């Protein structure tokens, strides 16, 4: 039976595929089932972050480019820290 759900294809390096296969086998899942769990969890976390961001107080957006002096000071500070 075919499904009408959207599909995608992912390619893995051999070593990554083997590691995913071992992980999936340990949870009695197929690799696609395991990857689906990862994607659903990532989407859930993204939605939560976006919800938190939308509740935050908006701050005026300004772009400040560092001056040449500021860049030079940063360069000296990082060299001195080494």
The number of helical runs is 3
Number of strands: 0
- Global outline: elongated
Quote the average pLDDT.
82
Overall structural class, as computed from helix and strand content, comes to mainly alpha
Residue windows where pLDDT falls under 50 for at least 5 positions: none
Radius of gyration: 23 Å
The succession of helices and strands, N to C, reads HHH
Major beta-sheet overview:
none
How much helicity do the residues have?
A: 55-70%
Q: Whole-Å distance between the termini? A: 63 Å
Estimate what percentage of residues fall within beta strands.
Answer: under 5%
Structural features:
3 helices, mainly alpha, about 80 residues, elongated, single chain
Please, could you describe this protein's structure?
By secondary structure, the chain is mostly helical. Helix content is 63%, strand content 0%. It has three helices and no strands. The chain starts with 13 loop residues before the first helix and ends with a helix. The mean pLDDT is 82.
């Amino acid at each position: 039976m075919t499904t009408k759900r959207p599909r995608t294809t992912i390619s893995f390096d051999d070593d990554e595929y083997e590691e995913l296969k071992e992980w999936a086998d340990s949870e009695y899942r197929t690799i696609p089932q395991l990857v689906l769990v990862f994607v659903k969890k990532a989407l859930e976390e993204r939605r939560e972050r976006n919800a938190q961001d939308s509740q935050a107080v908006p701050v005026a957006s300004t772009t400040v480019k560092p001056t040449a002096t500021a860049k030079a000071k940063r360069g000296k500070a990082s060299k001195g820290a080494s």
